[in-house]
């Protein structure tokens, strides 16, 4: 990995990095970002097509950043009276990847923090459901590994 480890440093073409789960290490913290989502940009239907993208997320990461939430975590849409998170993403996060933090923001109504006892889920949407950028930032501390 190149020094500084940014999302686009590893791609031959800028759009290439947007289509893959890209692991990056900063100090001793490993994180991975992926843009895939159901229903908007980087659309794929739920099911095997989207699961194939989630399967590219590596194990052993500390922070996972996705566009949308897993099913049941900060994904309630009152107007539709339903949860809209992705069950395939939930299974990927809880059964295989198990990051310490999962950060997303695609469901503006779900702004806030939850935990399942192992992973902390942060819906850090900047905008409200009416696309007003008024949600305050969510700030969290990462442990400072010894020797860094």
TrEMBL record:
SUPFAM superfamilies: Metallo-dependent phosphatases. Transmembrane segments: none annotated. InterPro entries: Metallo-depent_PP-like, UPF0046_metallophosphoest. PANTHER family: METALLOPHOSPHOESTERASE, METALLOPHOSPHOESTERASE MPPED2. This is Metallophosphoesterase MPPED2. It comes from Tupaia chinensis.
